[in-house]
Design brief:
- This protein has two domains: 60 residues, Sun protein, domain 3 (Alpha-Beta Plaits), CATH 3.30.70.1170; 214 residues, Vaccinia Virus protein VP39 (Rossmann fold), CATH 3.40.50.150.
- Strands 5, 6, 7, 8, 9, 10, 11, 14 and 15 form a nine-stranded mixed sheet that branches. A four-stranded antiparallel sheet has the order 2-3-1-4, sandwiched between helices.
- The chain is 36% helix and 20% strand.
- The chain starts with 9 loop residues before the first helix and ends with a strand.
- By secondary structure, the chain is an alpha/beta fold.
- Strand 8, helix 11 and strand 9 form a beta-alpha-beta unit.
- It is globular.
Length: 356
């Protein structure tokens, strides 16, 4: 529906999606089979996770490909920081003299995948300490700032900004112009955010330690664009943290979903009509991704999903899950998997507020 985003009955919408997720859980628990149990045991996962992967990917043969890909190391990525160094190749050449080898990330003009390590840790080089680059665990984290498409004149909200990789990327794309308001509620992570903003020479950002759910009451519909890289279970980064194979229960996913909906609704409310919100997670769980977007969009009128434009062949969003149907427009969301795109498991969705 066109027009300003207005509130629907929160309790009614929330109860409806709670029932849907309860039904997902019931159908999931009745879908266990011997081969899924065997794969879970062989690779060290909770069985319900393998059952969900089968549902997302369409069969256990591809689930095996996913689980095998999660066993392979994820190459690190650097984004050269032109706010500190005018020439990208200068930083690359200095690191190559330390023994590093890189390949260009073809869809991000400042970024390189580390193909061979050098004599000094990438977190301890002079170039790192001078703010010459940001170090990522994988390349998928470069996607959200690109699809946000920030302009130099924009007012941008980074709603869960710590430790600062995406925030400093946005500042670089804006050439240190316009305004970024970066919030994070964690005291420890906020320290890392401030350190990275200073190290990377970011000058257009105001960092505020606060829960982003308070942003609309303080700022109103102030921002042209916003990024919510939501706190999540990290189910897409098992390559980096194998403990995630067993640490998250289905109830944990539902708890994460409820918090993510609140954060996304608040972020949407902080953006002016005609503005854009990017929602992302390092998770492949539909409970944290498509279900979160669907509930937030149902909560607010005047919000639509648009396809992210980035040079990665993204998989479409999930619109049917254990027989539960979600809005077809969620196919416009994007996903990455280690066995398909060679990236960590990741989700991104672009939302626009109609009007303005």
């Amino acid at each position: 529906m066109a027009g300003r985003a207005t509130s629907l009955d929160w309790s009614e919408v929330s109860a409806s999606y709670s029932r849907l997720l309860e039904e997902v859980g019931r159908r999931m628990r009745s879908s266990v089979d011997l081969r899924a149990e065997e794969l879970a045991s062989r690779f060290g996962y909770l069985t319900y996770m393998v059952i969900r992967y089968r549902e997302i990917l369409g069969g256990l043969d591809e689930v095996v490909e996913l689980l095998e890909a999660f066993e392979r190391p994820l190459p690190k990525t650097i984004r050269v920081n032109t706010l500190r160094f005018g020439r990208v190749d200068e930083v690359v050449e200095r690191l190559e003299r330390l023994g590093y080898a890189f390949s260009k990330v073809p869809w991000e003009r400042f970024s390189y995948v580390v193909e061979r390590s050098g004599r000094v840790s990438l977190g301890a080089t002079h170039e790192f300490l001078l703010g010459g680059y940001y170090l990522y665990r994988g390349s998928a984290s470069l996607i959200p700032p690109l699809v946000l498409e920030p302009r130099e004149s924009d007012r941008v909200l980074d709603a869960a900004a710590a430790p600062g990789g995406k925030c400093t990327h946005i500042a670089q794309l804006m050439d240190n112009r316009g305004l970024i308001v970066a919030t994070d509620v964690s005291r420890e992570r906020f320290r890392a955010l401030r350190t990275n903003l200073e190290r990377m020479g970011v000058e257009n950002t105001v960092a505020i330690r606060m829960d982003c759910r308070r942003v609309p009451e303080l700022f109103g519909e102030y921002f042209a664009k916003a990024l919510l890289d939501a706190p999540c279970t990290g189910e897409g980064i098992i390559q980096l943290d194998p403990t995630r194979k067993t640490k998250t229960t289905f109830e944990d996913l539902l708890s994460a979903h409820r918090r993510q909906v609140e954060l996304l609704v608040a972020t949407l409310r902080a953006v002016a009509p005609g503005g854009r919100v990017v929602y992302s997670t390092c998770s492949i769980a539909p409970e944290e991704n498509e279900f979160t977007v669907a509930e937030a969009v149902a909560r607010l009128e005047g919000v639509r999903v648009v396809k992210p434009e980035v040079g990665v062949d993204l998989d479409p969003g999930v619109t049917e899950y254990f027989g539960v149907e979600l809005p077809r427009e969620l196919r416009l969301c994007g996903r990455t998997y280690p066995h398909r795109q060679g990236l960590e498991g990741f989700f991104v969705c672009v939302l626009e507020k109609v009007g303005g």
